[in-house]
From TrEMBL:
This is GMP synthase [glutamine-hydrolyzing]. GO terms for cellular component: cytosol. ATP binds at S227, G228, G229, V230, D231, S232, A233. Homodimer. Its EC number is 6.3.5.2. Residues 200-395 form the GMPS ATP-PPase domain. It holds the Pfam family GMP_synt_C. Gene3D superfamilies: 3.30.300.10, 3.40.50.880, HUPs. The active site is at C86, H173, E175.
Length: 521
């Protein structure tokens, strides 16, 4: 993103934190514009961007370890306010003459913190509250001139500040929802210590992206990969604002969509986006997947076939490109797609989302991804502000590879038909129970290579099990299994086993994320 002249900027320096984007997102929630920079960016360059404040993130290293990422201590005397979280807090302590040690007192997860002296950072926050910790090192002495504000049973210095110098820090992670009053702590720093103005709103994201896309595309043309989901709908609406009818939306029916989905998307979207190109590519995708059961291989094949389909659509819609003309592809990529594909700073690959890690190496499109730094609930807020219909904004997520990653085993047309039927029943019952908004999503998974014995109509059956996986979530980064009412589960189970031939058993997935992911592949 480009700098916002009318807004104060907060830079989050990333030391390999798991949740750096979450910090930036919490800052935006406090109505201050924020971006992330890697810790390798020299301090002069950080300061040259004229941030109103700087946040040092957490990270996996130990400050005194050889090769641990550090920061030039000039950052603490530059006059720009700095806030340290966890590793960032330890860096501030050690950089200014305090002490950090490996005390053997480790805290992971829920921890009770006691506020001894609220100061400015912890003003009006209950003296005892619960926070989320994840550290093995501890600050054992605060630097001179700092006031120690809080402690825990095993960490004597859990928060400190030096308001005159604009410096403060906490050992815990105020950015995660499990930390009580985390947002208040962050806002005390941003508003009361650093004096950041509260001017940023989601609408600014739209304006800024529209401007940027106009510059990027000039008088060129773009196609948008539109799935029927909220992310691509919002991305398309933003790009349409920027380049008008030089945008064409392309929906791919890869044969792994749900029952009636293509017709529904066509109906709903033609009203909002005049030109919707619907491509029937079922044979192409299913043939390409023949004989493949390994999940990453499936994802890569699906990612590749998506791009081949968009290339063909580009030529069909716009004709052959002129010499040197750039082909643009809009995707509704969000930040969680990027992290899981291993695209964050130092994060590992969990699964290759088709639109990020699953893209082929010979990609010729220049990508336009206006939502790449955002989380789903932020995207929904943007969608509402853009006036998109609420059925579109609140639609449950559905993965790009579709039912293909919900068949555990090889994807075949017969298996897809089975799963489509079971999935339609489960979704119908969830809607009937009025639970669509309470449940984040509810994959139905076909264990295609597993069979179990049943008895139906006094006869033996040897059919497949399906798994239903209802989950609740805030942003898909973490999730919990949803406690669906028993009578809803019962109706789903009875109907699926009665109505779907070949399925004689329904099981319920009761795993949170982590350790399980939402989808099974
Ligand atoms: N069937 C499809 N046809 C065209 N593009 C698709 C299709 N499925 C996925 N995409 C592209 O891949 C992107 C990522 O898919 P993803 O499922 O994460 O987002 P979404 O479908 O827009 O929203 P949601 O997460 O709510 O389902 C989409 O934003 C879209 O650009
Ligand atoms: O567009 C997508 N392409 C993919 O390859 C993909 N894989 C998972 N998902 C969706 O992402 C969210 C997190 O899913 P996981 O916990 O299974 O990783 C959930 O909402 C999943 O449905 C995908 N979406
Ligand atoms: N989450 C963190 O930033 C951890 C900091 C440091 N690695 C520790 O264990 O103390
Ligand atoms: Mg989707």
């Amino acid at each position: 993103m480009t700098q916002q002249p009318d807004h104060d900027l907060v830079l989050v320096v990333d030391f390999g934190a798991q949740y750096a984007q979450l910090i930036a997102r919490r800052v935006r929630e406090a109505r201050v514009y924020s971006e992330i920079v890697p810790h390798t960016l020299p301090v002069e360059e950080i300061l040259a961007r004229k941030p109103k404040a700087i946040i040092l993130s957490g990270g996996p290293s130990s400050v005194y370890a050889e090769g641990a990422p550090g920061i030039d201590t000039a950052i603490f005397t530059s006059g720009t306010p700095v806030f340290g979280m966890c590793y960032g807090f330890q860096l501030m302590a050690s950089g200014l003459g305090g002490e950090v040690a490996h005390t053997g007192a480790r805290e992971y997860g829920r921890t009770d913190v006691v506020v001894g002296e609220p100061g400015t950072l912890l003003a009006d926050i209950p003296a005892e509250h619960r926070v989320w910790m994840s550290h093995g090192d501890s600050v054992t002495a605060a630097p001179e001139g700092f006031t120690v504000l809080a402690s825990t049973a095993s960490t004597p210095v859990a928060a400190f500040e030096n308001v005159d110098s604009g410096l403060a820090g906490v050992q815990w992670h105020p950015e995660v929802l499990h930390s009580e009053h985390g947002q208040a702590v962050l806002e005390h720093f941003l508003h009361d210590i650093a004096g950041c103005r509260q001017t940023w709103t989601m609408l600014n994201i739209v304006e800024e992206q529209v401007e940027r896309i106009r510059e990027q595309v000039g008088d060129g043309r773009a196609i948008c990969a539109l799935s029927g989901g909220v992310d691509s709908a919002v991305a398309a609406a933003i790009v349409q604002r920027a380049i008008g009818d030089r945008l064409t939306c392309v929906y791919v029916d890869h044969g792994m969509m749900r029952l009636g989905e293509t017709e529904q998307v066509r109906r709903d979207f033609e009203e909002v986006f005049d030109a919707l190109d619907v491509v029937d590519a079922a044979d192409q995708f299913i043939d390409a997947l023949a004989g493949v059961s390994e999940p990453e291989q499936k994802r890569k094949i699906i990612g590749r076939e998506f791009i081949r389909t968009f290339e063909a659509a580009q030529v069909r819609v716009f004709g052959d490109a002129d010499e040197g003309e750039t082909a643009y592809l809009v995707q509704g990529t969000l930040y969680p797609d990027v992290v899981e594909s291993g695209g964050g700073a130092g994060t590992s690959n969990i699964k290759s989302h088709h639109n990020v890690g699953g893209l082929p190496d010979d990609l010729k499109f220049e990508l336009i991804e206006p939502l790449r730094t955002l989380f789903k609930d932020e995207v929904r807020a943007v969608g509402e502000q853009l006036g998109l219909p609420s059925t579109m904004v609140w639609r449950q997520p559905f993965p790009g590879p579709g039912l293909g990653i919900r068949i555990i085993g090889e994807v075949t047309r017969e298996r897809l038909d089975l799963l489509r039927e079971a999935d339609a029943i489960a979704r119908e019952e969830l809607t009937r129970a009025g639970l669509d908004r309470d449940i984040w999503q509810m994959p139905v998974v076909l264990l295609a290579d597993v069979r179990s014995v049943g008895v139906q109509g006094d006869g033996r059956t040897y059919g497949h099990p399906v798994v239903i996986r209802p989950v609740t979530s805030e942003d898909a980064m973490t999730a919990d299994w949803a406690r669906l009412p028993y009578d809803v589960i019962e109706r789903i189970s009875t109907r699926i086993t009665n109505e779907v031939a070949e399925v004689n058993r329904v099981t319920l997935d009761v795993t949170s994320k982590p350790p399980g992911t939402i989808e099974w592949e």
